[in-house]
Automatic annotation (TrEMBL):
This is MBOAT family protein. The lineage of its organism: Eukaryota, Fungi, Dikarya, Ascomycota, Pezizomycotina. InterPro entries: LPLAT_7/PORCN-like, MBOAT_fam. One of its GO terms (cellular component) is endoplasmic reticulum. It comes from Aspergillus mulundensis. One of its GO terms (molecular function) is 1-acylglycerol-3-phosphate O-acyltransferase activity.
């Protein structure tokens, strides 16, 4: 996959058929399969519940394995899924009804077929997917890469240019919304998308392989919610087969897990400079968003933090607007890919995303942060009312982006200092490390984490 990523980048010929998308899906499937086989050889007490569920204890026949790897509805664009779902789909245990279920609430099937009727939900996905494709085709003529590269783009006002780059991002997303919704519909039609039913209402869920949630993404009020609604199955893969796998048993994921996940996600996407521009800036945006949520948001809640204040709706609107406009800036290099075009389109809008992030980081590194903390504590009715830890700090990275890049770096430095101190106690280090020694230690730590 990496060889083909580089070949595509070097050739730079849009007329050549690109197979890297299918290979990206295969990398997720094959690596997950290997981990599942590995888990199947371990004692049960060493596995988490998700690992127990996905573990492969009996090696599948070649035909079943090939069917899983080359599953047609998700072959070229995803979604990827674990082998256990495919096996349960084949033997129809995926559609078993829990004992004691009300017969009137059990999903309807055709004759002796065990898969619930999936024609209607699949048709809805097909219509939705085609609608998104039409949206892409209609908007694509007005909002495309050439629009931003045309010299006349600079003649527009700044706000008009910001609107155009946001429209370009939405148009680009519409293409993926359409493709992924169509593939999800194909999976639903086959029965693979089945995800159980509500025993009280009888409502059937077909969201097992849902890859995107356009509504949540377009209305997201922070970067974590924005990224969490995009390419969900890749998030699942990075979380379960990278982030948690490099974390020693019994320990909380830290710097090593985040770095390995970030690097894996970056290499998986390819080697265009634009990817790394977006990833690095997105990491710092996660830090900024976390600081705003922790230190500014409480002022728009009741003193105990339990209910919204009278101005909370204005904060929500501002959060939505800033998130959408900022993320539109962040994804520009993801669209243009090359170094020169990425920096040029950022320049056409005065690097507003970079400036805003740097200004926010400086603000929260200044005494203003302490002032906000003091004011926030003075509003609280009791000390526990003010959260000391953002909920985002205990969540896994989204698409490989750390939730707090600054904190991750601080943790890395602290971990390295602790290791040097440990060696000093053992007599292997008797003096304070020099700058070169600390640099070498950091490089060694990163190398061992990635290797």
């Amino acid at each position: 996959m990496s060889v083909n990523h580089l070949t595509r980048q070097i050739m730079d010929n849009p007329q050549v058929v690109d197979i890297t998308g299918a290979q990206m899906v295969l990398v997720m499937k094959l690596s997950a399969f290997c981990w599942n086989v590995h888990d199947g050889r371990l004692p049960q007490d060493q596995l988490s519940d998700p690992q127990k569920y996905a573990a492969i204890t009996k090696f599948p026949p070649v035909l079943d394995y090939a069917g899983y790897v080359l599953f047609f509805p998700g072959l070229f664009g995803g979604p990827a899924f674990d082998y256990v779902a495919y096996r349960r789909w084949i033997d129809t245990t995926l559609f078993e009804v829990p004992p004691g279920s009300d017969p009137s609430k059990v999903p309807r099937t055709r004759k002796k077929r065990k898969i619930p009727r999936s024609g209607t939900p699949a048709a809805k996905k097909a219509v939705t997917g085609l609608t998104w494709i039409v949206v892409f085709l209609q908007l694509g003529s007005s909002y495309n890469k050439d629009t931003l590269l045309d010299p006349s783009f600079l003649d527009y006002s700044f706000l008009r240019r910001v609107w155009i780059i946001h429209a370009l991002g939405f148009t680009t997303r519409a293409k993926y919304y359409g493709v992924w919704t169509l593939t999800e519909g194909a999976c639903i039609l086959s029965g693979m998308g089945y995800n159980g039913f509500d025993p009280k209402t009888g409502k059937v869920f077909w969201n097992r392989l849902e890859n995107i949630d356009p509504w949540k993404l377009e209305t997201a009020q922070n970067s974590h919610a924005y990224l969490g609604s995009w390419n969900k199955n890749t998030n699942h893969w990075l979380r379960n087969y990278v982030y948690l796998r490099v974390t020693p048993k019994g320990k909380k994921p830290g710097f090593r897990a985040s770095l390995a996940t970030f690097t894996t996600s970056a290499f998986w996407h390819g080697f265009y400079p634009g990817y790394y521009f977006s990833f690095v800036l997105g990491s710092f945006i996660q830090t900024v968003a976390k600081n705003f949520r922790r230190h500014v948001r409480p002022f728009f809640l009741s003193p105990d933090g339990g209910t919204p204040g009278p101005y909370k709706r204005f904060y929500d609107f501002a959060s939505w607007l800033v998130t959408q406009v900022t993320m539109s800036f962040v994804v520009l290099p993801f669209i243009f890919l090359t170094f020169s075009t990425s920096t040029y389109v950022w320049q056409t809008v005065n690097y507003y995303g970079v400036i805003a992030v740097v200004a926010s980081l400086v603000f929260f590194a200044s005494p203003a942060k302490g002032f906000l903390l003091k004011k926030s504590r003075s509003r609280a009715e009791r000390p526990k009312a003010v959260r000391s830890t953002s909920t985002e700090s205990i969540q896994e990275p989204t698409l490989g982006l750390p939730n707090d890049a600054i904190q991750e770096f601080d943790d890395a430095v602290q971990e390295i200092k602790s290791e040097i101190e440990s060696r000093r106690r053992k007599g292997s280090v008797v003096t304070m490390p020099t700058g070169d020694e600390l640099k070498a230690a950091i490089e060694d730590k990163i190398g061992r984490t990635l290797g």
